[in-house]
Amino acid sequence: MLESKMKWMFDSLEPVNELDAIIEGLLEQRGLTTAQEKQAFLYPQVEDLIDPAHLADIDKAKTRILRAIDNNEQIMILGDYDADGVTSTTLMLETLRELGAMCDCYIPNRFTEGYGPNPTAMRQIKQDGFDLVITVDTGIAAFESIDVANEIGLDVIITDHHEVQETLPAAYAIIHPKISEDYSFKALAGVGVAFKLSQYLLGYLPEKFLDLVVIGTISDLVPLVGENRVLVTLGLKQLQQTKRPGLVALKHIAGIKDDVDEEDIGFGIGPRLNAVGRLGSAMPAVKLLISEDLEEANQLAQMIHDMNTERQEIVKEIAKEAIALVEANPDEHRHVIVVAKEDWNEGVLGIVASRLVREYQRPVLCLAIKPEQGIAKGSARSIDAYNLFEHGMSVRELFVHFGGHAQAAGMTVELGKLPYLRSALNKIAEETLSEEDFKEHKQIDLAVDVSQLTLELVSQLNRLAPFGMANPKPLFYLKGVPKDIRKIGADQTHLKFSLEQNKFQVNVIGFGFGEDYFHLNQNQTIEVIGYLSINEWNNVRSVQLMLEDRKISTQQLFDFRGRKFWYKDVLPHLTGDSSIVHFTQPFEHNGIKSDHVVDVINQAYPVRNLIVTDLPESMNSFVTLVKTLKPDNLYLCYQAPLDSMQMMPSRDDFKWLYAFILKQQQFYLERDATRVAEHKGWKHNKIKFMIDVFSELEFVKITDGVLIPHSAVKKQPLETADVYKKQQVKTDIESLLYYSSYQELMTWLLTALESEDSLEEEKIHGL
């Protein structure tokens, strides 16, 4: 048995047979039922975009912006320091410049100013001669800053997409899909909202900005459905052919070719743009995106690339320290993990929190302690069942600052309130979450057979791209028998095997699943879930499954019979809930000793892995052991006895040997047994056994190593001899438990374990 790491959720695991039915099923999984909905999803068009005029306050905002331009007022664009923020800032800056505005941009420093507009920045902006501020991807929670701006005569137009709190800031205008009743799509990214304002200001659809829109939208992990799907689909095409020097340079240094997809942004472009604001000011990222000189862009791209490498090392070190804090006091982090430490770089704490969520399947708050200010500041990430924004707002009084989404948030906490916050969030989790909620949920789209995994299927699946939030890559369920199991990778932490079903095979790659190498065998069915991809090797393209999770629901039998050094492969990989037992011959290696079977049965504690090191004296004792302990995994690690005969001599064998003895009249055990062994190809222990049966039944008499047949023999069945009976039991045990094939042994074992009563020897022998 091998438990899944995740909770599998599905409507049905019955395989879908036809290719068209697979695509239809996936569309329905995404809530698309009508022909019109499916058409719009599969073929996104510019015409599907919503008129920005439906956004509340957008006309008011346009009037104010155009008035500022006409009056030569200076406009400041105030953005956020992540990829969504810098693309939003760039887009709005270029829009206003096209309109002839006197404008500049400003992104607060994460480390010296924190997130979003702040009163000090507002006063400085006013002092520098600006009369209007347009926020992008920020501002909806900047109550104090907006009040200060109003006091000093600075108009503020907010464009944002983050969660709205109970009240709204008193800004001049607020452009936000979630407060716009007439705007049907509520899930735009910050750059999507900025694009809408740009379109409304310019009076046409500025497709040239779609390369920025797609980067910010994918990087901010908003749902890739509805209008976002249209923007991303069009944006990917724009990004493939972009002439923007900054993006050309960034694509080159990230190793991205012309055929750009959502993964190139999610793993290549987005993290590099994010790295800038995580380590310092985000302005170099904006400078890269607005650069018109390729040489300058290449230099900026290299600098940003180096910063991303540095960011990766910082994340690795902080994650290591955070895990150590959790492990040092697990009870304190039982439901919600709240870790805090001095000198942590707050710019990367969101990434660290995400890693800890994956590691522990708990909501995580990672905070950098600032003792001189008496605060802790950082980021949080959550599991599906725990709404960070909702639960954080329920204890809002414990935060200095708080804002974000259901699954991600940023916050500042007074150090004195940190223990109370930890206690409050853990209490909420304890009262609202079940044990299953702490296991990552995976929604399985469809079950398929291995025979259906074709290049054509993958080609059809790509019609559902771009994939992302609310439109994930299709997750498939398959089952089969693993073959050619091996560890791969420089550090051997990954797994590769072929999944075989009805003579069809597909290669499976499991990153991070290397330890499973010791927990799979090539004879039992495994269930897997994963994503399909194309592998290209030597110009040959084939389908492969990228493993997401696996499980074996039945008891596993690992066959190490006859392996002399089995302990080298078995012992290093056993968990603490394992038991090594013997029936008659104790086992010991490097201080590890086996326990006698009786002692283990009497203790009757739960055993996940049961290792049997020798053969039993009766079949019932073996069955009783396995039935009592009910191990998930059974390891058979015994050798054949030295006197093993494998098969009982046949009646003809007995007849031939007895006839030979009668003919000789005097059978010298040492000499004649060797002659018979060479002539018949029998082992000496077989000959000895037959002679012992003759002796017990008084067919012969043995004196000083010489065997002489009795002249008058009472006819008796061979089976009545005690030595025959004992050998019969011994041979049956060896035949089944040692010499049988894996499948024969597994079939017998499952039958024996399903029996309610203790099995009689005769029934076992008859199987």
Q: How would you describe what is shown here?
A:
This protein is an alpha/beta fold and 767 residues long. It folds into five domains: 7-16 and 448-551, OB fold (Dihydrolipoamide Acetyltransferase, E2P) (Beta Barrel), CATH 2.40.50; 51-307, inorganic pyrophosphatase (n-terminal core), CATH 3.90.1640; 329-438, Diaminopimelate Epimerase, Chain A, domain 1 (Roll); 556-639 and 734-766; 651-720, Arc Repressor Mutant, subunit A (Orthogonal Bundle), CATH 1.10.10. The chain is built from 26 helices and 28 strands. The strands form seven sheets. Strands 3-2-4-5-6 form a five-stranded parallel sheet, with helices on both faces. It has a five-stranded mixed sheet with strand order 7-8-9-11-10. The chain has a five-stranded mixed barrel with strand order 14-15-16-18-17. Strand 14 (476-488) and strand 15 form a beta hairpin.
Describe how the helices and strands are arranged.
Elements: E1 7-9, H1 19-29, H2 35-42, H3 58-70, E2 74-78, H4 83-98, E3 102-106, H5 119-127, E4 130-136, H6 143-151, E5 155-159, E6 173-175, H7 190-202, H8 210-219, H9 226-240, H10 245-253, H11 262-279, H12 283-290, H13 294-328, E7 337-342, H14 349-360, E8 364-370, E9 375-381, H15 388-394, E10 401-404, E11 408-414, H16 418-432, E12 441-443, E13 446-447, H17 455-461, E14 476-488, E15 494-501, E16 504-510, E17 526-537, E18 540-551, E19 556-559, H18 567-570, E20 578-582, E21 588-589, E22 592-593, E23 595-596, H19 597-603, E24 609-612, H20 619-629, E25 633-636, H21 651-664, E26 667-668, H22 669-680, H23 684-696, E27 700-703, E28 706-709, H24 722-739, H25 742-754, H26 761-766
Parallel strand pairs: 1-12, 2-3, 2-4, 4-5, 5-6, 7-8, 13-14, 16-18, 19-25, 20-23, 20-24, 24-25
Antiparallel strand pairs: 8-9, 9-11, 10-11, 14-15, 14-17, 15-16, 17-18, 21-22, 26-28, 27-28
